[in-house]
Structures are given as structure tokens and as C-alpha cells.
Amino acid sequence: MGTRREALTVEWVKLELLRTAYATRGGMLARRDPRFVIGWYLVFAVVPWLTHNITVLLGLFAVCAAAVVLSRVGPLVLGLFLLGFVLESLYVLFAAWFFDGDAATALALAELTLKLATVSLASMAAFVSLDPERLSDALLSLHAPAMLSFGVSYGFRMLPVLMEEFHTVVDGYRLRAAPPGPRGVLGWRVVLRTGTTVVNAFYPLILNTAKRTRTTVEALETKGFTYASEHPDGRRIRLAYLAADRWDVLLIAATLALVAACFGLGHHWPLYGTAG
Fold first, then answer.
1. Angle at 186 between CA 184 and CA 188, to 5 degrees
2. Where are the beta strands (DSSP E) in the chain?
3. Measured distance CA(113)–CA(223) in Å, rounded
4. Other CB atoms within 10 Å distance of the CB of residue 98
5. 59, 151, 247, 250: which has the highest count of C-beta atoms within 10 A?
6. pTM higher than the cut 0.70
7. CA separation (Å) from 110 to 52, 63, 79, 251?
8. What tens digit of pLDDT does each residue of 90-132 get?
């Protein structure tokens, strides 16, 4: 029964990773033009670093948190973020106490934590809403190098291959290994056995993936992928479906208005984490 539960847990993690990578949940940003989604993300990736006002940062954090909810971010990614955010907050409090800091020290550390958390939330909302093809086409439309857009798309598409390859290698090690002995105190032997298997599986995983990558690249080049990506006619045909509408413009306008409102709120109730 324990093995079945473990298998279901592993399968759930695999499905969550695939849903995240291929934007199958939909959401507010998933329906928008990918170029405008990238622009939306850049706003929240840059603006938090332009202020030391914690009130402004709290406002930006709230906006990005609302975007995460509207973008239907999966529980796995959201749970990992919440765990990291809680641990980081505890670290801030501990560091301020351990180094005999006062409230100003805690505020300065909280400022950095809020900036990183805001950018992380914006990243989740934006890139969970973009499937590999649309993200790659958006980068190509913005005149990014063809190899960069291909690398992004290929990296996402290699995720299922990596997961399947990892399971194959780990299952091979488990079949050839001796039966597990006693679990030990708090199951330390199980943890040690699992860690050793994962480390041993790393090199075969990379080797097998490299073989598949070479085969894929050779097949793409045979079909003229590089030429089609760099030729103007090929780019025009590939990007013909990209079209912005008034809702995309409204997204950017509403985002800028919310950012301005956060700065206005910070002007009336300033709270600074860094002096000067």
C-alpha cells in the first residue's frame, strides 16, 4: 500500500510539472498575446528594484499575488513558493535578532525579501500562462536570436523526456540492487539509499538525454529548421497568428495604472527599509 501511495505521489508531481510547462490550466494571461505577457512580466521584474519603499513593495506584491490567482498557478509551484517565502521570512527575523539588529535592520532585510517574492510571483503568473510554442514565437517576434527561441521551446519539450528517462534509469538501479534492509531510525537508510540512487542516475540520465538531443537536432537540420527560422518568409508564416487586440493593450494600461497607484500609496504612507 505504501508503494502505491508513493507511486501516486510521484505521478502527481509529474502531471503537475507537465501542466505547468504546457500551460494547460488556462487563466487570465493565457488568453493574451504572448508578447504583451512578456511585457507585463518585465514591468514587475524591473519596477520593484527602483524603490526602497516597503509600502510600494507590498502593493506590488499584492498585485502579483492576485495575478497568480487569476492565472491558476498549480498547487505544486505555489506550494514551493510559499515554503520558500516562509523560510526566507523566518531567516530575516533570525538574522535581525542574531546580529543584534533593530527594526530598521529587519525592514531592510524584509525589503529584499519582498522584491524577490514579487519578481517570483510575476514569473509564475507569466510563464505558467505561456506554452513553449507561444513563448518561443513571442521571443522570435521580438527579434530575439532564432537559437534562443528554439532553445526555450526545446527545453520545455525535453521535460517529459527527462522525466521518463530518469524513471527508467532509477528503476534499473532498483532492479539490480539488493533488497532494502531495515529502515533505521527515522528511516535514515531509506533516505541514504534514495540519495545514492539519484546521484548514480545522474550521469546515465545526462548521457541518454544528450543522445536524444543530437538525434533531434540532426532531424531538425535535415528539415531545414535553421534556414526557416532565419529566413524572413519563414518567420512571417510562423508568426502570422500573433495578433494583439484591445484587451492586450488594456492589460498593459491597467498594469501601469496599478503600479502608479502603488507608488501613490507609498507616497502617502511611506515605510522605508533602506536609509537614503
1. 55
2. none
3. 48
4. 8
5. 59
6. yes
7. 10, 18, 20, 29
8. 887 887 777 777 777 778 888 888 999 999 999 999 988 888 8
